[in-house]
Write a structure and sequence with these properties.
The chain folds into 2 domains: 2-47; 59-158, Cupredoxins -  blue copper proteins (Immunoglobulin-like, Sandwich). Helix content is 28%, strand content 27%. It is built from 2 helices and 11 strands; from the N terminus they run ααβββββββββββ. The longest helix is centred in the first third of the chain and has 40 residues, at 8-47. Bound molecules: copper (II) ion. Copper (II) ion is lined by residues 66, 97, 99, 145, 147-148, 152.
Length: 159
């Protein structure tokens, strides 16, 4: 090191190295800071401003890109009571994509007559939909988004 420092070219190289290291650190800090801000904004958007339910049982399931969210749980299980006057679920679409909810019904199969589909069937970005159902038989019923059937799923347990 000593020998290197004595040489003018060695000094220059060390100086450049120090500058490069400093620049890297500053760059990293700037990058990390930027990411944090973006992530915070996204999280705030997803969790804040709950939409007040229009009525019924007051259940709100938020739709994002691409997930269902209920009480902070993604692709949730939603417990409901068997029978009664039924359940009305509000479905605000807080994402940018179109979404919907389709409940498979008693046969646990999609795209047949006992399916229950959200109103409207296609809920656009920023739009509110809902879905109403009554389960007279205790059990676990699956639901999904028709547009993102692999990503957006969940279950309703009637008991
Ligand atoms: Cu979807």
């Amino acid at each position: 090191m000593r020998d290197l420092r004595d040489l003018p070219i060695g000094e220059m190289l060390l100086g450049m190295l120090a500058l490069a290291v400093a620049a890297t650190f500053i760059g990293v800090f700037l990058t990390v800071g930027g990411d944090d801000e973006e992530a915070g904004a996204e999280n705030g958007g997803a969790t804040s401003a709950p939409t007040s339910p229009a009525g019924g049982s007051g259940v709100t399931v938020t739709m994002g890109d691409n997930f269902f969210e209920y009480q902070g749980q993604r692709n949730p299980n939603i417990p409901v009571q068997v029978g009664g006057t039924g359940v009305l679920v509000d479905l605000p679409n807080e994402g940018r994509s179109i979404h919907n909810m389709r409940i498979a019904g008693l046969d646990n199969r999609y795209n047949n007559q006992d399916d229950i589909v959200s109103d409207p069937e296609t809920i656009r970005a920023g739009q509110n939909g809902n879905i109403a159902f009554t389960f007279g038989t205790p059990g676990t019923y699956t639901f999904r988004c028709d547009f993102h059937p692999d990503d957006m799923t969940g279950t309703i347990t009637a008991q």
